[in-house]
Amino acid sequence: MRKMLFLATTMLAATLYSASAYADQKEVTVWSWFVQSTMQKSIDAFEKAHPDVKVNYTYYNYSPEYITALKAAAASGSLPDVIGLQPGSLTQQYRENLEAVNERAAKQWGDKWAEKIFPVNRKQMLMGNPKGDQNYYIIPQESQVLCIWYNRKIFEKLNLSPPKTYADLKAAAKALTDGGYIPMFQGAADGWQNENVFLMLANQFSAGIVDKAQAGETPWTAPELVAAMKAWKGLFDDGIFQQGALGAHAYPTGAQLFAQGKVGMMALGSWWMQESKFPPPLSEFVQNMDGFDFFYLPPVKDGNAASPPVGGIDIGYGLTKNGGKNPQAWTFLAELTNGVGLQEALNDLNDLPAFDGNSPKGDITDHVKDMSARFMADLPKAENQRFASPAVAEALDNALAGVAAGSIEPEAALAAVQAATEKALAAK
């Protein structure tokens, strides 16, 4: 009887302890478009280091699901604790819903913490802030460099080399099309991918000109930007992009086709290396990334140089006003961007680090190491990828879509972007 009473008492104590521990466990809610499998590894590492915290992650495809979800949650005051952000326009769109993280970051990493972040990223962290506002509303997790990826096994099969001129690019696109492949997949229904390609083009004509235009220092109707917009239209007219590009999405459609070996080229960035770390079954092209390599967009005008590296922050995170009330939310954000969570993402080759001094560990092939080293060498000299104003980014998206569809001429489209820029600058 005593034994049974002892067992019952022990079981009750264990149950009460378990219930108490569960009740004491804090929760953090996170939304992002960050790869679900990699995020889970980051969460597992965080929860191992912080067993009293439970992280609930909701994944969205970036466009349009994530953008739509953020808008709805902000309108209803129900944003999660931590949200994935891009610098500039997306961060500014939700700045009123975000906590400034300067003091928390200084306490976490020291007063000179921002100096550990690559210069182009640090610049982007303040993009679009009202004049005099030196607060940081985004902490970058990863950096990226934009480029044109190509399937080198298909190129070898068709006796193609990475294009060095626009004529080479057109010839490669024709050979790919004739061979039954999609030449260069463009998700032209996605504003972000259109912006990326346009930035590659614009920086060929004048490095940094888009930054000057959005700052009001150069008109969007400048000859160099008009030439870039005409070159953008040429990518459709010359058969570089696939038929039906205007209705296509880069993710998941384009990425899946590219990974399966049905696409010759695609404008993406350094994050494509992560494909080699996804769970099986992997295609012969993705396995160890042996089937892929990258180049920069060749000059569309004779005498110009190829596109310079363009990039900066791939993804960052913001602490919402709701998250500011939850002490564990910052702890998770800090570990995700420059701690145990970041290390897991780098090990998965999700992208390049944003904080200097971090690097991937584990099983990585020599080919991937070489590509990663090339990206890291180019990152410090990368031109800015981001837009400070949501309205300007939207106006450019509309201009690119309209010019590609042939419904508006380049000069008129860029005049609309100029008007949006002037309005945005006047409101600051």
Automatic annotation (TrEMBL):
<keyword id="KW-0574">Periplasm</keyword>
<dbReference type="Pfam" id="PF01547">
    <property type="entry name" value="SBP_bac_1"/>
</dbReference>
<comment type="similarity">
    <text>Belongs to the bacterial solute-binding protein 1 family.</text>
</comment>
<dbReference type="InterPro" id="IPR050490">
    <property type="entry name" value="Bact_solute-bd_prot1"/>
</dbReference>
<keyword id="KW-0732">Signal</keyword>
<dbReference type="GO" id="GO:0042597">
    <property type="term" value="C:periplasmic space"/>
</dbReference>
<protein>
    <submittedName>
        <fullName>Extracellular solute-binding protein</fullName>
    </submittedName>
</protein>
<dbReference type="InterPro" id="IPR006059">
    <property type="entry name" value="SBP"/>
</dbReference>
<feature type="signal peptide">
    <location>
        <begin position="1"/>
        <end position="23"/>
    </location>
</feature>
